[in-house]
Amino acid sequence: MLGTIRDALKVKEIRKKILFTLMLLVIYRLGSQITVPGVNAAAMDKVGSTGLVPLLDTVTGGGLSNYSIFSMGVSPFITAQIVVQLLQMDIVPKFVEWSKQGEVGRRKLNQVTRYLTIVLGFVQSIGITAGFNTLSGLGLVKSPNIRAFVTIGIILTGGTMLLTWIGEQITDKGLGNGVSVIIFAGIIARFPSGIKEIYRDYITNSSSADLAKNIAFLVGLVIIILIVVQFVTYVQQASRRIPIQYTRRAAGSGSESFLPLKVNVAGVIPVIFASSFIVTPQTILMAFQSHSGDQWYQVLTEIFSMQTTTGSLLYTLLIVLFTFFYAFVQVNPEKLAENLQKQGAYIPGIWPGNETIKFMSGVLMKLSTVGAMFLGLVSLLPLLAANLFNLPQSIGLGGTSLLIIVGVALEMDRQLRGLLMKREYVGFIR
């Protein structure tokens, strides 16, 4: 990818896209350091041991630990997108109608997504502020009252909407998918502090007798991370090509093409769903800190904590279940069979209609089985490693982070290669 970037910087148009993207990311990073007025960010250190801050801080680049104006990141926007997408599955007839109206319908759905982002962002920001204020011993909000919480909610919601706008600008005028690039930048921004913490724990604070052992351990850890990254990259690019035959009337020559289906059809969405399912109960439990000694509270904390074996297993199970669910959301066998019939296409050896639906459902089940095992393994390994070896969570290299980093890097590489190839073709034609 570095070679592709080096070649792209030589092209003026592509260089402008890269510099424009970097400029907006600098604005994002600056905003992540601006603390919300009326908040004592130092109080967040008291709740750092709960493990919830690093989990919520994964996609904000440290914005939540600073309680900055970008503390919420783009998570409300992502949640709104998921909700609107699910409502298009014959749940809300109006949304189904808009989804079939092309560009006009897409704009209407985007507008609904923005309104829902505002609502979710406001409710989530007030809830998290109130919860963290309780966990910090009422030290987070300097003057805790309704007006202060509403003001903080408005500021954090405004920060989310500004990040959403920045993401749209990157998508239109920059490089890559804007929201994904912002999350990617937030995750990368946490690496220096994580590496610094590892260096302090294993090198600076270790005795001379343990120094060689710790260095060997860190070298082995780096090798394992590189192997996992290579494995994730390979699976993310892997796909199954289903042959598609076109009739002479539709294609003119009876040509054959392929329908590529990724092995990981659902992408990173199941991991995001599972993370939300785990985080939401933790957020609610923050309001019941006065019952921390009760048995029911301790049991729920054990179940919904990423730092326990039970919580890690529940997290993995949810990922597996959501993988099967969202794979059929992404690729609807009924709609796919209908579109093939409209295009005068068919799968060789498979009758159009119900037979095609059954065939595609079977293929999706097989791919989802492999994809679920892949996502579960990638998400569980970093959690187990962090718990077994007491690695700092601030490094942010969890399952979700790793999948996003690899996915965004591959997408940006494909886009850069496409732009370079397009320029070569244009130059050849001229």
TrEMBL record:
Transmembrane segments: 20-44, 64-84, 115-134, 146-167, 174-195, 215-235, 265-288, 308-329, 367-389, 395-412
Membrane topology: Multi-pass membrane protein
SUPFAM superfamilies given in the database record: Preprotein translocase SecY subunit
Signal sequence range: none
InterPro entries: SecY (IPR026593), SecY/SEC61-alpha (IPR002208), SecY_CS (IPR030659), SecY_dom_sf (IPR023201)
Predominant subcellular localization, coarse grouping: membrane
UniProt keyword Protein transport, yes or no: yes
GO terms classed as biological process: intracellular protein transmembrane transport; protein targeting; protein transport by the Sec complex
Domain of life, per lineage: Bacteria
Keyword terms, alphabetized: Cell membrane, Membrane, Protein transport, Translocation, Transmembrane, Transmembrane helix, Transport
Matches recorded under PROSITE patterns: SECY_1, SECY_2
Subcellular location: Cell membrane; Membrane
The protein's assembly and partners: Component of the Sec protein translocase complex. Heterotrimer consisting of SecY, SecE and SecG subunits. The heterotrimers can form oligomers, although 1 heterotrimer is thought to be able to translocate proteins. Interacts with the ribosome. Interacts with SecDF, and other proteins may be involved. Interacts with SecA.
Function: The central subunit of the protein translocation channel SecYEG. Consists of two halves formed by TMs 1-5 and 6-10. These two domains form a lateral gate at the front which open onto the bilayer between TMs 2 and 7, and are clamped together by SecE at the back. The channel is closed by both a pore ring composed of hydrophobic SecY resides and a short helix (helix 2A) on the extracellular side of the membrane which forms a plug. The plug probably moves laterally to allow the channel to open. The ring and the pore may move independently.
Family listed: Belongs to the SecY/SEC61-alpha family.
NCBIfam families linked: 3a0501s007
Protein name: Protein translocase subunit SecY
Gene: secY
